[in-house]
Design goal:
Rossmann fold, 6-stranded mixed beta sheet, alpha/beta, SBP_2_dom, 2 domains, Peripla_BP_I, 340 residues, 42% helix, 15 strands, 7-stranded parallel beta sheet
Length: 340
């Protein structure tokens, strides 16, 4: 992927600083967001970021939940297009399933911004660098374990349905092995991205082989589900490291506060994703040149670092925008879905 097709979220925000032409004219945009799974903490915070940014710019956001059903996502897109929404933002239920939607939208002149996962025929996607996110978490895990560690065995709780999550898992192992070359993936599981499925497949894997040093989850639900399986099996936690991904909501914060095995979080800042998706949607509608990939920053956090990015009182959290906005997104990702 050439860097000319990539722009950071910071650059998009800078290009849209101040009010838009539409806001100046008093005509706010009608933006439709088709979320793939609205009950998930990650998407609830993405929506929060969208709503806050839309309100700042004088636009409105309407949300339809596909609830992990591709047919419902198609129906939602058809509904938004029939009602002539100005822009559509969509988190794909699966990448191939949204291709006909993108094709029809392009033919009808409807701008669409994808969130999270790229798909063939897209105009633009707002996303993190998934491989880089996993890689940096892997390096941090290796450094925490120590370069002289030997025989490190990893259980990956992944989601092979999506290229983005495949990239995270691959990045984590590659990053870990740069510090501890002998580290190996013992279990490579499909946790479905949800805690119940992750707990189920992890329990089965641990029953077969529980000699595990590190659990990596492609999202917080995966990591937490696997940790629940570990605890249900009565396994010792003293030498276990759990690494989550997302900083999706309160669940990872609650667990990290216990100072147990959940020691690292690859933070993806969903509020920032939602904020940037609105900026990108406005730019696309206004006919501005928008890159194929708009990159949002990530970083690996320990418990001591979390408070710099989120204030937290046990029942709610608040993103610290100055700290998050100070993070630099890479000019381009180390690896893309097309590289798989």
């Amino acid at each position: 992927m050439k860097s000319t097709h990539v722009l950071s979220a910071v650059a998009i925000a800078a290009a849209l600083s101040g009010t838009t032409a539409l806001a100046q004219d008093g005509e706010g945009l009608r933006i439709g967001y088709i979320v793939n799974y609205a009950t998930h903490e990650w998407y609830q915070n993405v929506i929060l970021g969208m709503e806050q940014r839309a309100e700042q710019l004088g636009h409105t956001v309407e949300v339809i939940d596909a609830n992990l059903d591709m047919a419902r996502q198609v129906a939602a897109a058809e509904d938004f297009m029939a009602r002539e929404m100005d822009v559509i933002i969509m988190t794909p239920v699966n990448e191939e399933g949204v291709v006909p939607i993108l094709r029809r939208a392009r033919a009808d002149g409807v701008p669409i911004v994808l969130e999270g996962n790229p798909a063939p025929g897209m105009q633009t996607v707002v996303a993190i660098c998934d491989y880089d996110t996993g890689y940096l978490a892997g390096v941090a895990a290796g450094e925490a374990l120590g370069a002289d560690a030997e025989g490190i065995r990893v259980m990956n709780v992944g989601l092979p349905l999506l290229s983005a999550t495949i990239l995270r898992s691959r990045g984590f192992m590659d990053g870990l092995q740069t510090v501890i070359p002998s580290a190996e993936m013992v279990h490579d599981l499909d946790g479905g991205g949800n805690p119940d499925r992750s707990q189920e497949v992890s329990a089965a894997a641990l029953a077969a082989d529980s000699d595990i040093d590190v659990i990596y989850g492609i999202n917080d639900s995966s990591a937490l589900g696997a940790l629940q399986a570990w605890r249900a099996a009565g396994l010792p936690e003293d030498d276990l490291m759990v690494v989550g991904t997302g900083a999706e909501g309160l669940a990872f914060l609650n667990e990290m506060q216990t100072e147990g095995p959940y020691q690292l979080e690859a933070a993806m800042f969903p509020e920032k994703i939602g904020f940037t998706a609105i900026d990108t949607a406005v730019a696309l509608f206004n006919g501005e040149e928008v890159p194929e990939y708009v990159i949002s920053p990530t970083t690996a956090l320990t418990l001591g670092e979390v408070s710099s990015y989120y204030s937290y009182d046990g029942e709610s959290r608040e993103i610290q925008w100055d700290a998050v906005n100070a993070l630099e997104a890479p000019e381009q990702c180390m690896m893309y879905a097309s590289d798989l």
